[in-house]
Amino acid sequence: MNTLITTLFNGVSIGTVLLIVALGLAIVFGLMGVINLAHGELMMLGAYTTYVVQNGFKTYLGTESQGLYIWAAIPLSFVVAALVGLALERGVIRFLYGRPLETLLATWGVSLILRQFVRSVSWGMVGGLLAFCGLFFGGKWLLGKSARIPSYRQNLVTTGLFLLSGAIAWFVGSNINNDPQLARPWFSARNVDVTAPGWLQGSIRVTAGIQFPASRLFIIVLTLLCLLGVYLFLQKSAWGLRIRSVTQNRDMSACLGIPTAQVDAVTFALGSGLAGVAGFAVTLLGSVGPNLGVNYIVDAFMVVVVGGVGNLLGSVIAALGIGIVTYLLGSGTMVRLLGGADGGAVVSFFDFFATTSMAKVMVFALIILFLQVRPAGLFPPKGRSAEV
In the 3-class helix/strand/coil scheme, how is 298-358 assigned residue by residue? Predict the structure, then answer.
């Protein structure tokens, strides 16, 4: 019984990690139809935000503040990822709605850019980017206020402004990089460690043979709070009503005066912010690196597809199911439950898949078989959502 309870808890804890990663993706992919391959990198930004907040607390408030940084890291991870997601939606995604293949390619390129940005970001790069954004976007704002430039010359002027801003930004960044201390990358390609507070480093003893890691329990509680918050936002708030309206019928919503462009931006920012919270949660499980998001993006898409596109309940069931099955197979629990090495061909079959990598292969195969029976997932869309 103790083994079974521990196995179920470990499976549920894996499932909740998958769920909190997939929660933002379920909103972006499920409600907006955008295939966002940069979702894992938004999650990575949330993890690095947690690392920076931890170091900031340690530097300015001392080591005694180690147990307090997570209360600042959670909202800041959400805000940073949401702002980057908002910039991504306003700058790229809004031109590609209704074209999922183009969104896939564009967000894949953005994911590569974000990964390389984290590897090489320094004060010189930040100074150059700030100079470029201030000059280019400030110049465009001033040009928009001016009525002296004919419309047929605006594109030419914008191109010239872009080149001039880029040249000045390169000059600023190069001058900053002349100082070796300022030119040093903030993070580089190495992994960094986030130290969990002392009250999350131990285990909570339930019985004599059962102990649950405190960090895993915290992630489970955090996932439930995020799930509750998303549900209340979508079902009880005015913006949630607008999001559901635009999801079902964009043209009719626009006719009724709903600002569909703002709804798209809010939805994408919400999904991106949840990815940042997922990044914070993952820091409690291991080190943080530029390739952090790659390890979770495929599993997150599996959760969304199996649960049913846009259905939060389906995502919950799919995440828990995939987590439990993955742990049962990968940990060798199925072999022990079936009687060990003397169990015959069935035990040999499960013993072959009793590693983490082979367990994922089996889960992929089971998902493919499931989708042959229910290609729309556990809870397929109905009504207007299905027509879209």
Answer: HHHHHHHHHHCCCCHHHHHHHHHHHHHHHHHHHCCHHHHHCCHHHCCHHHHHHHHCCCHHH
User: How wide is the angle at C-alpha 370 spanned by C-alphas 368 and 372, nearest 5°?
Assistant: 75
Which two structure tokens, joined as six digits, stand for 380?
């397929």
Cβ atoms < 10 Å from Cβ of 288: 20
Q: What is the pLDDT of residues 150-200, one digit of tens each?
A: 666 777 878 888 899 889 999 988 888 888 888 888 887 888 888 888 888
Query: Count of CB atoms within 10 A of residue 199's CB?
Result: 11
For the chain, the structural domain boundaries read 2-121+185-387, 122-184
| Both structure tokens of 211 | 């102990």
Residue whose C-alpha is closest to residue 307's, from 227, 215, 250: 227
**CA pair distance 150, 34, nearest whole angstrom:** 36
**Region 2-121+185-387: CATH code:** 1.10.3470
Length of the chain: 388
Q: Are 32 and 267 in contact (CB under 8 A)?
A: yes
- Alpha-carbon distance of 133 to 120, in angstroms, equals 19
Q: Which helix (H) or strand (E) holds 108?
A: helix 100-120
| Angle of the 238-248 helix axis to the 214-236 helix axis, nearest 10 | 80
| Alpha-carbon gap, residue 303 to 305, rounded angstroms | 6
What pTM was computed for the model?
Answer: 0.85
- DSSP track, 13-45: HHHHHHHHHHHHHIIIIIIH----TTHHHHHHH
